[in-house]
Amino acid sequence: MEIVQLTAQQPDLLRQAAALLPRLFPHADDWQTLDGALAEIQHILDEGAAFAAVEGERLLGWIGALSVYDGHVWELHPLGVDPAFQGQGIGRRLVERLEEAARAVGVSTMMLGTDDEDDRTTLSLVDDLYADLWGHIARLRNLDERNPHPFSFYEQLGYRVVGIIPDANGPRKPDILMGKSMR
Ligand SMILES: CC(C)(COP(=O)(O)OP(=O)(O)OC[C@H]1O[C@@H](n2cnc3c(N)ncnc32)[C@H](O)[C@@H]1OP(=O)(O)O)[C@@H](O)C(=O)NCCC(=O)NCCS
Q: How far is the CA of 29 from the centre of ligand 1 (A)?
């Protein structure tokens, strides 16, 4: 397996990357068609960077980022590994490759939002997160450690919760915002 930069000159890899999105992100309405997913990838190539884990001609996973805050921050968006290849360290390697690219161009902070749309964390139990916002963040846990939410994957890679957007995807479906220093 190797990690390569995704460019507009690799139509087959781009199609495979697009095909992965609806499988991994069933809640993302805009990504459910091939055209919608390809448009998102083009946006990422235009406004940031993307890397793919490939074996031969096959794409196993990919990661993208958008440059925001005048280039001081990259927003990791999205990250996905083919379910048949999850748990083999590919997600970690993709994040590390993206961070290397970010540092090379002087990015200060990598940020990301990871939604809890499937009631997988303690945040999904709370109707009014505003009442004790930072208390709920401090007590954030997975509801089922056998099916952990990706926030704990990112925590293992050094990311910290920097905030939440309550009800981002409907009542009790928050977005968990995370960041990591690239300095
Ligand atoms: C999250 C995801 C990218 C992880 O990729 P992966 O290749 O399976 O992860 P890795 O094998 O590199 O795992 C790295 C570490 O994180 C842990 N980990 C993997 N998935 C995890 C998860 N969902 N929650 C918590 N920890 C996780 C692994 O156990 C491993 O720990 P270790 O180094 O102590 O063994 C992958 O599960 C995925 O594509 N999920 C669906 C899409 C998604 O949710 N993307 C993120 C949205 S923001």
A: 23
